[in-house]
Write the structure tokens for this entry.
Amino acid sequence: MGILAMGILYEGKSKIVCQGPDDGSLIIRYKDTATAFNGEKKAELLGKGELNAAISNLIYGYLGENGIDTHLIETVDETAVRVKKAEIVMVEVIVRNIAAGSFSKKYGVPEGAAINNTVYEFSLKSDELGDPMINNSQISALGVATADELEEMLRLSAIINSLLCALFEKAGIKLVDFKLEFGRYGGGLLLCDEISPDSCRLWDMSTDKKLDKDRFRRDLGEVLEGYREVLGRLRDVRQI
């Protein structure tokens, strides 16, 4: 049965979510759409969906091998995966290893500057509100997540960060920052959504060349070339 025949449940900026072949699963298809600034900037980049799917699937496989529970069940085709039907926690965790992006702008820290410790931020998942930063007490006050869930999300984020830094270092890439999403499933939390150049800042370790979505945000050109380089390097270190 084709993915569209199963019924679209939700279409976002970069992915389409459909009902899976059973009640407990979903099908997620990656789109070729590139967006920035909460959808204000938009373009179609042929092949982007396939690249993001391949990169995210490779990373999720690596994390799964290292004890991280994820929503990924199987690859359907080059742009689609079948995942567990989790209840998404409407809070993102942003992990920052190096100053960049909004962190640099907000706090006047030069982009690329070293920071004394890894920064973990919460962001409310709301396109309408612009995904604002939100703290623990605000999250619990709104009933978005419990204190225990937030503690577990931070614990998992720290482990994932350590694993990903090691993987990307082998590939000659700096993991500058990235975002994570989690979902409730079976009484616990699963890692959900994607980990790709759309959701990470990835810089070449030697030159600081950007290999991520900032190439699109900042009109640097060669967006897909950067994504292909990330995939090629990860495949080399994973021997795929």
